[in-house]
Request: fold
Amino acid sequence: MKQLNLKTTLELLNSIMEFELAGVVRYTHYSLMVTGPNRIPIVNFFQLQATDSLNSAQQVGEIITGLEGHPSLRISNMEESYTHSVRTTIEESINHEKKGLERYRNLLDIVKNSSIYLEKFTRKMVASSEINIIELKKMLRDMT
Reply:
């Protein structure tokens, strides 16, 4: 196995943690802004996404401290269109998830063959992000 690049790993983990915390804010905001006849299941969906983002941020923070790093107190910058149609929030969610997936794939490139635990964790997070994107795309189908 190769040596873990601890500095780069911690930087990426902190970037991911900041991004996941931004997801908590984003998805909570979306859950508050949903209107229309399908409001309740969509609110529940966004609340679940916010909870998932918080859980991910906490897991990443535990890894950071386990590697003797210091978890960031920041969150990533967030863009907002100020358009809160269900279609727009789902499209923005897809973009958000794709950016998160890119971060996890970057982490995977760094930890691959240097830490079985980190590689396994990161692969699980990549898979989860891919599933989220698939689900969001399915939600867009047949929307008018």
